[in-house]
């Protein structure tokens, strides 16, 4: 066994048996590590809030032991007091995946970077100042609710996937210019005047953001959306008028989008299908440049069908539309989706319909 897993299942067992004491928890972990046969390539650890730690001395010792193991994966989720990552972690030169929650990440001044690190997930991490950190193999970066991000000065030219809610705009724009970047999800948008100027990646926004779009909260940067070529609407409810308005607003201001992916969420009891259907029926759009559309988790509601009809009506360059219903849609409903879509008029005579099996 090359992996040690002390995540929620492990800590949960201590909670069940009432052994959530500091000494018992740390003693078991150190005994397992000492008696472990062979190298430890993956280390997953959750420190629960119920354990009172005077210091993180024991955790520092565990990290020191791991430094001798050519560790590839470090997944440290801290629900306790904030923990400062010790200098030993910065000697994990074979590290491929690094996940930290509720930590202080302050590299020593002489630290130059992780040469093999490919995936970073930082949540509630506070960054300390230092030199530029070289991450030549980094492909995926997630920064959630982090602080002092200005001090996280990285060089990541191979970055492909970015998910963040805490980057200052200058750092964000620098990351967005990675030549390999193809997928971006911005979880919180505050200052985005030039964000969408980089058009080669897939820009992902969810239904919550679309409601802000409808309210005009981000109108100051919509003029730059002409640079976007790939757009992903995630967790969208077409039973919500504001989400529909936001989606159409985004499409109107993204005239060069060629690839659109829409993932639907189940209609809740608050959905107003009559109102949203009436709104969609009244819409007259400028032409879309869409070439490929993918609709995921369809339930076959009238607003969903009208949204597809609208795209077909105003996309003269469309080559393919992929439709995958939700697994909860029975066979009759799936058949009705196929019948409706096939009867819709199309602005493009080359548009190919692809119907896939339901997704759970």
Please tell me about this protein's structure.
About 30% of the residues lie in helices and about 25% in strands. The protein is α/β, with parallel strands linked by helices and about 350 residues long. It has two domains: about 1-95; about 190-360, Leucine-rich repeat, LRR (right-handed beta-alpha superhelix). Strand 14 (about 260-265), helix 8 and strand 15 (about 290-300) form a beta-alpha-beta unit. Helix 5 crosses helix 7 (about 240-250). The longest helix has 14 residues, at about 20-35. It is elongated. Residues about 190-200 have low confidence and may be disordered.
Give the helix/strand layout.
Elements lengths: L2 E4 L1 H9 L5 H14 L6 E6 L9 H10 L6 E6 L4 E2 L12 E9 L13 E9 L5 E2 L5 E5 L9 E2 L5 E4 L4 H8 L6 E4 L15 E5 H8 L4 H4 L7 E7 L4 H12 L6 E6 L8 H9 L10 E7 L3 H12 L6 E6 L5 H13 L8 E4 L5
Parallel strand pairs: 1-2, 2-3, 3-5, 4-5, 5-6, 6-8, 7-9, 8-10, 10-11, 11-12, 12-13, 13-14, 14-15, 15-16, 16-17
Helix pairs in contact: 5-7, 8-9
Number of helices: 10
**Percent of residues in helices:** 25-40%
Order of helices and strands: EHHEHEEEEEEEEHEEHHEHEHEHEHE
Oligomer: single chain
CATH architecture of the largest domain: Alpha-Beta Horseshoe
Query: Strand percentage, roughly?
Result: 15-25%
At the third CATH level, what is the topology name of the largest domain? Answer: Leucine-rich repeat, LRR (right-handed beta-alpha superhelix)
Q: Which radius of gyration do the C-alpha atoms yield?
A: 24 Å
Largest sheet: 15 strands, parallel
Structural descriptors:
2 domains, two-stranded parallel sheet, Leucine-rich repeat, LRR (right-handed beta-alpha superhelix), alpha/beta, 360 residues, 24% strand, single chain, 15-stranded parallel sheet, 17 strands
